[in-house]
Amino acid sequence: MAGIGFALRKLSNREDLSSIVSGFILSAIVAAGPWILTTAGLLIVSYSSMGYFTHVQDYLLFRSLVTFSFAATLILVALIQLPSTRFIADRFFEMKFSDNRSIYITVTGITLLFGIPLSGLLIFCLDLSPLVRLSFFNLLIVLMLLWVTTSLVSTLHDYGAVGMAFFSGSLASVLGTLLGARYGGVAGALLGYLMGQGVIVTLLAVRIFVEFPGPIFWNRSFLRFLKKRWNLAVLGFVMTLGIWIDKILYWYAPGSEKVVGFIHINHIYDIGMFFALLTVIPTLAMFVFYFETGFYERYRMVFVLLEGKRPFFEILEAKEQMVRFIRRGLGYILKIQGAVTFMVVLNAQGILRFFHADLMALPVFRMGALGGLCQVVLTMEFTLLLYFNQQKKVARLAWVLFLLNGSLTSLAIFLSPRFEGFGYLSACLFSAVYGYLLLDQGVNDFEFTVFMQPPDYLPVEESSSEGTSPLLAPSLSAIPPKVG
Prior knowledge:
globular
């Protein structure tokens, strides 16, 4: 969080209510910007646009295409998102801020190189009108660019511009969808929605080019890094697919509805999960704000002492302060999210009625809220393991989440509709417990990782910077990706 982290720490040091609220909102954008777009934005658009479509089937087609496009693009871009985030972190450590432009152009180019033909193949497999096909194709491309661009949001300092980009783009999506649905049907609604997302991409891209001046070129260093660290691409893909696999399975489970071609929708499961995932956004924001204003400073201090060749007992004391901060932070998150989840479970029926949602989604909503609590803990564990440079442990945890979520969801589908959401809840719960054990082991092995394992950073011949210390490389190269 080299850019936004500075802004968060500056806001927290003011110790006034407006600064804390501003920092919390900024943290929500950084932690869950795409998540907010996926859930809150989609819910608002779906319910507000229902009366603007001529036929109910058109509304279902629009909603299913948008939902599918989010899932497909997030999973596809995950292959490039984690490697690019890691590479940018390495460049920030080397103080090569001018490389941001070239990295952004290169990552965008790679995304479009694979995204355009795959999107084209996808739309030609669906029986859609030419205008709907064109709008759907453009939506897929814009969303890919959005996920790539949001990967660099945390490097920006102008948090006001970042917030305005998300707010104005989301508002434009809602208005564009309503107007498009009234005058252009499904094609118009898709076009209006993607224009709002395009506003976000454009405004964020402008901020990237403004804040990081430098040459624009094809960054071959990133291509070499991507070839060398292909395991990061696999890791990002598995992490994202592990979160989405239960939704995908329920799209093709008994009770789902075929909309067009291979695109299905499970109205009950989708609505319940969308509402459930909204409940964890405040806690994710608190997690980013809390750790960027406290944990990172303690984490960094350990490596400062190492670089200064301070006595070993001082290094151990700094480590203990860091560990105590982690435990206290985990306790805060469990208490806050636990209280939120408890209130949501008790008032789930009233919440669905307030939004005029189908009450058949009530069991899924409750299961999803409990699973969301576990997923917040999982997010914290993924982040900390990446901070401690424990990528093998992160890979094991990601595979456990994917396999458990897929297998337990399949079992729940086979048993009975009464178990809807049980697979997701069980997978997140077991994965969170396993992640805690891995994190505890990673903390205990912290000294071994620092002193005995080779640092995980780019070779000197791939960087023009001098005087880069390998001891500090893990601290700024462990920035985690944003998960869906």
